[in-house]
Amino acid sequence: TDDVHKGFLISWCIILGVFSVFGNTLVLVASIKYKALKLDNISVMLIKHISFADVLYALVVILMVGWSLIINDWPLNHPLCEASVFLQFFLALVDINFIWVLNVAKLTCIIYPFRARLRTKNTGYLVAGTIWLVSNISPLQCAAMRRPVYFDYRSYRCAYLSTPDVWEWLDPLNTMIFFLTPNIIVIVTTIWLLLFANKMKGIHKQAVLTMLTVSLVFCISYAPIGVYMTTEKWITAAAGVDKHKDFLYVQLYRYGTLVKFLNNSTNPIIYYATITSFREFVREKVFGIKKQSISFSTRSQTIAISIRAVAMKRRTSDRLSNFVKNRHATTKLQTVEIET
Questions:
Q1: How far is it, in rounded angstroms, from Cα 48 to Cα 34?
Q2: Most confident of 239-243, 285-289, 315-319, 330-334
Q3: What is the rounded distance in angstroms from the CA atom of residue 127 to the CA atom of residue 48?
């Protein structure tokens, strides 16, 4: 049973990791080289950064967890273990921050459309750069204070050691500022976007549906580890001395970290399902299905438009004919009256 369980975990990490690298790289190529994401400029720019962060996360975290599961230990040296912890926290914060900023940016486009038109690419670069810098704050604290690092067999990756010193109050503070607050913003903006989903049309509706789906997957994938982080103090106390045999302490944390990988791997699928231009790009470039010049639906619409145009032309012709007849009859009647 343990071998089957371990085999499942290894397969989970390798499949999600490879798919995340391939899928998010495809998104980057589609958006940068082929301009295949037909959304507003700010949304496209933020999606590029999310995809880039997801590729890095897959390489640094997801695939490394799979490698650690295979050899049942950290495969590299200790300095790289420290670098891995720094990057996994940093990239997780980058991902969270870009998602809530993406939601807020779209909401402001809907609520203040005229102000949104004044945004330039420089605004997008400024926002993106700020997110990358701010996301460094918490990881840099740990690196600067030389926080101890160890290999956690629950999640099969390196982690920071919880020690009874400054981190007793700094950890909850960082969690509230850098994790809890962005998650609350994601939830609130997701509910807010739901109110506008049916009112949008065209690329704006595609953008809203994309952000709604990305946010919902984000909330679902982070829910288990969020429950653990919220109740960690009580779970650890209840587990006692022999905590490594406790189900909640081990399994909830392990599967919480593994389920979170879905957030980094499913975004390309979401873009394929909700963005028409990206779907057409994948069909043509990946599956070799060329876009037909006129699809069946388009042909049907063209025929319907033609029928309406002919009917309108006939009505106009009939009206003009009736007008001429009436005019001719009126003129003839006037002539008869004059003669009389």
A1: 13
A2: 285-289
A3: 13
Please tell me the total number of residues recorded for the chain in this structure.
340
85: pLDDT strictly greater than 70: yes
Q: How far apart are CA 47 and CA 49, in angstroms?
A: 5
Structure tokens at 153: 């067999």
- Radius of gyration over every alpha carbon of the chain, rounded to an integer in angstroms: 29
Q: Which amino acid is at 339?
A: E
Q: Which residues pair with 152 in a beta bridge?
A: 157
Q: Which token pair is 162?
A: 């919880």
Spatial contact of 102 and 46, defined as CB atoms under 8 Å apart: yes
Tell me which DSSP letter residue 199 carries. G
At 293 the three-state DSSP class reads coil
Share of the chain above pLDDT 70, in %: 84
Q: Which residue has the tokens 């993406």?
A: 102
* Residue 1: predicted pLDDT: 45
When pLDDT is averaged across residues 288-306 and rounded to a whole number, the result is: 59
What are the contacts of 241-244 at 24+ separation with CB within 8 A?
A: 244/153, 244/154
Nearest to 182 by CA among 142, 207, 218: 218
Model-wide pTM > 0.85: no
- Residue 279, pLDDT score: 92
149-152/157-160 β-pairing? antiparallel
